[in-house]
Write a structure and sequence with these properties.
This protein is mainly β. The protein contains two helices and ten strands.
Length: 194
């Protein structure tokens, strides 16, 4: 998994010379289930959860843009550190690795940047030191977002719907246990555009 992430990062960097723009930055995402009324959270609820700082997956992303079309990769994670000196357990994490295609209505560097996105990813759980997850699932996601850009810096928010795929995740010696994918995530981010 770590080799795949490194390969994709180098791949994006090398290909950026052939395209008009490269953007990269930080993102934070938070997953949500439907409430008892069957509704997903709105922006204000997501922003409050973000400010509270609970359940956040922090990470990095890079996107290569040619005109209105962008191809990107993001990696976000949440680490669980063992702080108990009496229990000798290694650190564990949840991660979300995602490759996506985005269409920016006015171009990726426009002051107001509405966009649509579709992608595939892997959501998993395991030991940080291990190259294979204990639990993982493939998923497809799709959604919309809005960015604001000033020169080479920008910020964005996006609402993404997730659909778990049936394909099992291969690991050394077999398959990882299924890791149920949450149906929705809000993503906040900041970027630099080259």
């Amino acid at each position: 998994m770590k080799r795949t992430i490194l390969f994709l990062a180098i791949f994006c960097f090398v290909l950026s010379g052939a395209f008009a723009q490269l953007s990269f930055g930080v993102s934070v995402q938070q997953y949500f289930e439907r409430n008892e009324e069957g509704k997903l959270p709105g922006f204000s609820e997501a922003w409050k959860s973000f400010q509270d700082g609970e359940g956040l997956y922090w990470g990095l992303f890079a996107e290569i843009m040619a005109g209105k079309l962008g191809v990107g990769f993001s990696f976000n994670n949440q680490v669980y550190s063992n702080d108990d000196p009496l229990i000798d357990l290694p650190d564990m994490w949840n991660y979300d690795a995602n490759a996506y295609l985005a269409v920016h209505l006015f171009g990726g560097k426009a002051f107001i940047d509405p966009f649509a996105q579709i992608g595939v990813g892997q959501w998993g759980f395991g030991f940080v030191e291990s190259s294979d997850p204990m639990m993982a699932s493939w998923y497809m996601d799709y959604g919309v977002g809005l960015g604001l850009n000033i020169g080479i810096v920008g910020a964005f928010v996006k609402a993404m719907w997730n659909q778990q795929l049936d394909e099992p995740v291969e690991v050394q010696g077999g398959y990882a246990w299924e890791f149920p994918v949450m149906p929705f995530k809000w993503v906040f981010g900041a970027k630099v555009i080259l």
